[in-house]
Amino acid sequence: QSALTQPPSASGSPGQSVTISCTGTSSDVGGYDYVSWYQQHPGKAPKLMIYEVTKRPSGVPDRFSGSKSGNTASLTVSGLQAEDGADYYCSSYADSHNLGVFGGGTKLTVL
Amino acid sequence: EVQLVQSGAEVKKPGESLKISCKASGYSFANFWIGWVRQMPGRGLEWMGIIYPGESDATYSPAFQGQVTISADKSLSAASLQWSSLKASDTAIYYCARPMMLREVVITIDYWGQGTLVTVSS
After folding, report:
1. Is any Cβ of chain B less than 8 angstroms from the Cβ of A45?
2. Are A9 and A109 in contact, with CB atoms under 8 Å apart?
3. d(Cα B35, Cα B118) in Å, to the nearest integer?
4. Tens-level pLDDT at each residue, chain B (122 residues)
5. A58 and chain B in contact, CB less than 8 A
6. Would you report the helix, strand and coil content of chain B in percent, each value rounded to 5?
């Protein structure tokens, strides 16, 4: 069982927006602004999409955005494109794990 | 350009030993933490541990403490992950990862290797 809770699946049609949640506790997501999101296509390594809740690394489209409210962080993908279909994982710094904790992952399907 | 290039896929039998590697380039290897993340078949990501090559100081997740050994060779700019006795449950993809750190705490992972598939089967 993963430390952070994500829905197993999400979907949306091209052009639509979809939001993926990541729920933790006050000891991880809620207590620190160190939430990251990674995208993983089948057979590929994860790729950093969002870090420190809202920051985008260079090269990541601004269609990807992050936010946080209380113990839940969210990744929103706007203007869905076919290539956005992938698994998405959240992670957070946690009091009890100096290496951080991951969510179980969400499979995003672009219909 | 930062690159982490991992060694190739391995097929081993239970009880055998194994060492996989990750060759880093494009940055000062000794000055950045580097670590390993496990992904079991069809499952999520798990931190195994990290090491600071400049001091060979390794930190392990509790689940992996005593199960694996993480090392780094500054002269080769390479990190390694080693098992002394593999189990079938070690079958997974192992990613080399360079975390962004803040005071010895992992903030995020900004660079990943391509992954090494380890299959343990009799």
Report:
1. yes
2. yes
3. 17
4. 999 999 999 999 999 999 999 999 999 999 999 999 999 999 999 999 999 998 878 999 999 999 999 999 999 999 999 999 999 999 999 999 999 988 878 889 999 999 999 999 99
5. no
6. 5, 55, 40
